């Protein structure tokens, strides 16, 4: 098994906007160690979300290579990539992206279905996971019947259901009030510390980024710095705002 | 795999029930298309069944000889010297004496004013020789419900159709009642079974009064037949007998005569079959147009569904749904819309077919509509196929959607 759960080698991503090519990533190398908590920050339009998409196998790079669990994604077809993504990576999005006509339980069962797990087992795992994020009493509620913080917890449960190595979070607190945001950040923190999940999180806010062990700063499609966060005791406690 | 298949099915079904009014409206085109197909095919088959049954009763060794205009109004033919042709006695005798002829029935037809219980009605009267009728007893024309059929030596007695008995007069006509036909009193000796048999293309037996040829000749001076049934000794004699009969009429009316038509049961079945075939082809055309419209409706619904669920497709792909799964999910959803339309269409179609069948039979046109499970299965499979074909393009769009575009586009 490779030391790095995700690796980007000289990755570029170019979009053709009409006649004009837009170089969003201009050759980046990133290595994410197993069990690491990494934040990606940068100003708007810096390419941080594109980097996250590329690293998580949602987007294929224009040039360069992405390795997930040591396997080159360029050698996988879309179906194989979807399978690897579903197995290795759990996604948490800024706007939750839950399916509104399904209950919380059914939303969490969905990725397990894609992995070919039997319905009985899916139901059991999904219920257990929702209980672990504190939503044991909300299993049969639909997303529209839940608060923002609760929805994000359903999304986290969905990301955790397949027991992936990596949790990818894109501005996970962006749509939440400060209290709910703090709860979600603590939850992500715990997933890293207690369960050893690798966390890859995009945020534009410094104090959120500092919850990580390492911050990758990106600007104009190039990595500006990759710094270890020196943690004081206060920071480690999680003083969200 | 079948486990996954079942779950894709359930998920698709669930998506469908959430689509609401729009998917139900979409069904309409498919419902109309499938309903017309089912109605048409089952009515066609029903007509065919009835005709085949009727001709089978007559047997395949039967010749049908008609004068040219028999299908036209023959109401007053017997009495007034209209230019409608009838058979000449000498020709009838020649045919009767052919070595191939086993039995011959040459009924005479007219319309008469009939009185009963101080009410009058115009009724079709058929006169035939009871001796001849006996040999055609198995044809089903004279099956009786009550009483008996005409017998040799019968005088002014009548076998009446079931409708004549029940519907034509103020009072029901019963066995042993006396009715007056053109001023002559007849005793009712039998009532026919209700059937949809038409007597050689003439009036329906339910609406007819049968009397003996002898009595007929007493009422009408001119009692020449306009229709003949000839049964040959064996099935192999049919062709020879047909040729000989045609020669007899050629001698009378000249070569290429069109006054008399000689048909075999098979010929009649074939010609009915080809007319039915044409009718069904035309109606199938109508059905395909409505199915095309239905298909376009499904396509439209699916395009809307894919657009509305862009974000959902993005999420599903992000969290591990394969392109194949998304494709089959949307294809199945489209197929299920089609299938739902098909189920309703089959119900409506058979409802209509049975209704039309009942109306037609009660008004004298034989229609024997029956449930055909092959047709039902075929219609359902076809409706699902129409749905899936219509859903192909939108489903492919959904399956090939870039997860990032689908996700970020919705943010």
UniProtKB/TrEMBL annotation, chain A:
Residues 6-241 form the ABC transporter domain. SMART domains: AAA (SM00382). Keywords: ATP-binding, Nucleotide-binding, Transport. PROSITE patterns: ABC_TRANSPORTER_1, ABC_TRANSPORTER_2. GO terms for cellular component: membrane protein complex; plasma membrane. InterPro entries: AAA+_ATPase, ABC_transporter-like_ATP-bd, ABC_transporter-like_CS, ABC_transpr_LolD-like, MacB-like_ATP-bd, P-loop_NTPase. The keyword Flavoprotein does not apply. GO terms for molecular function: ATP binding; ATP hydrolysis activity; transmembrane transporter activity. Coiled coil: none annotated. It comes from the Archaea. This is ABC transporter ATP-binding protein. The lineage of its organism: Archaea, Candidatus Iainarchaeota, Candidatus Iainarchaeia, Candidatus Iainarchaeales, Candidatus Iainarchaeaceae.
From TrEMBL, chain B:
Keywords: Cell membrane, Membrane, Transmembrane, Transmembrane helix. InterPro entries: ABC3_permease_C, MacB_PCD, Macrolide_Exporter_MacB. It comes from Candidatus Iainarchaeum sp. Its main location: membrane. Residues 24-247 form the MacB-like periplasmic core domain. It is found in: Cell membrane. GO terms for molecular function: transmembrane transporter activity. One of its GO terms (cellular component) is plasma membrane. Residues 286-403 form the ABC3 transporter permease C-terminal domain. Belongs to the ABC-4 integral membrane protein family. The lineage of its organism: Archaea, Candidatus Iainarchaeota, Candidatus Iainarchaeia, Candidatus Iainarchaeales, Candidatus Iainarchaeaceae. It is a multi-pass membrane protein. This is ABC transporter permease. PANTHER family: ABC TRANSPORTER PERMEASE YTRF (PTHR30572:SF4), MEMBRANE COMPONENT OF TRANSPORTER-RELATED (PTHR30572).
């Amino acid at each position: 098994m490779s030391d790095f759960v995700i690796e980007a080698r000289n990755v570029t991503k170019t979009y053709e906007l009409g006649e004009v090519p837009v170089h969003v990533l201009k050759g980046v190398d990133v290595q994410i160690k197993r069990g690491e908590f990494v934040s990606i920050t940068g100003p708007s339009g810096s390419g941080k979300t594109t980097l996250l998409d590329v690293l998580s196998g949602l987007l294929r790079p224009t040039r360069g290579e992405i390795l997930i669990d040591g396997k080159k994604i360029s050698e996988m077809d879309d179906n194989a990539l979807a399978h690897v993504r579903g197995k290795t990576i759990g996604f948490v999005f800024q706007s939750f992206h839950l399916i509104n006509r399904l209950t919380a339980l059914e939303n969490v069962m969905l990725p397990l279905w894609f992995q070919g797990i039997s319905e009985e087992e899916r139901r059991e795992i999904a219920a257990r996971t929702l209980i672990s994020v504190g939503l044991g009493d909300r299993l049969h509620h639909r997303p529209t019947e839940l608060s923002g913080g609760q929805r994000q917890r359903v999304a986290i449960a969905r990301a955790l259901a397949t027991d992936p190595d990596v949790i990818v979070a894109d501005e996970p607190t962006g749509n939440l009030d400060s209290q709910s945001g703090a709860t979600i950040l603590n939850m992500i923190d715990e997933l890293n510390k207690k369960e050893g999940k690798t966390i890859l999180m995009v945020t534009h806010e410094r104090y959120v980024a500092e919850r990580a062990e390492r911050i990758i700063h990106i600007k104009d499609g190039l990595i500006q710095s990759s710094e270890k966060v020196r943690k004081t005791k206060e920071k480690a406690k999680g003083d969200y705002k | 795999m079948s486990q996954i298949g079942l779950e894709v099915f359930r998920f698709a079904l669930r998506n469908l029930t959430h689509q609401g009014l729009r998917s139900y409206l979409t069904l309409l085109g498919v419902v109309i298309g499938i309903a017309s197909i089912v109605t048409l095919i089952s009515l066609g088959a029903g007509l065919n069944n009835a005709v085949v049954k009727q001709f089978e009763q007559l047997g395949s060794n039967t010749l049908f000889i008609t004068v040219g205009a028999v299908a036209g109004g023959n109401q007053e033919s017997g009495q007034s010297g209209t230019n409608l042709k009838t058979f000449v006695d000498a020709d009838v005798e020649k045919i009767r004496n052919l070595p191939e002829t086993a039995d011959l029935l040459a009924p005479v037809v007219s319309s008469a004013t009939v009185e009963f219980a101080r009410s009058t009605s115009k009724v079709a009267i058929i006169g035939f020789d009871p001796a001849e009728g006996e040999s055609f007893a198995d044809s089903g024309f004279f099956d009786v419900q009550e009483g008996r059929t005409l017998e040799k030596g019968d005088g002014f007695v009548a076998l009446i159709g079931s409708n004549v008995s029940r519907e034509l007069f103020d009072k029901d006509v019963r066995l042993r009642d006396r009715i007056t036909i053109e001023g002559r009193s007849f005793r009712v000796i039998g009532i026919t079974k209700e059937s949809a048999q038409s007597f050689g293309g003439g009036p329906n037996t339910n609406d007819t009064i049968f009397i003996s040829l002898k009595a007929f000749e007493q009422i009408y001076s001119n009692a020449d037949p306009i229709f003949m049934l000839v049964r040959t000794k064996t099935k192999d004699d049919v062709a020879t007998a047909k040729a000989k009969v045609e020669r007899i009429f050629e001698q009378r009316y000249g070569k290429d005569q069109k006054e008399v038509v000689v048909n075999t049961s098979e010929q009649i079945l074939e010609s009915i079959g080809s007319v039915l075939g044409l009718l069904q082809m035309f109606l199938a055309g109508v059905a395909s147009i409505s199915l095309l419209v239905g298909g376009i409706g499904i396509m439209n619904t699916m395009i809307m569904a894919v657009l509305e669920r862009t974000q959902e497709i993005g999420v599903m792909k992000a969290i591990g749904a394969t392109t194949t799964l998304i494709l089959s999910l949307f294809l199945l959803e489209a197929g299920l819309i089609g299938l739902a339309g098909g189920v309703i269409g089959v119900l409506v179609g058979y409802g209509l077919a049975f209704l039309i069948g009942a109306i037609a039979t009660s008004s004298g046109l034989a229609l024997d509509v029956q449930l055909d499970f092959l047709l039902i299965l075929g219609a359902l499979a076809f409706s699902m196929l129409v749905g899936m074909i219509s859903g192909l393009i939108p489903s492919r769009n959904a399956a090939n959607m870039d997860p990032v575009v689908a996700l970020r586009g919705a943010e």
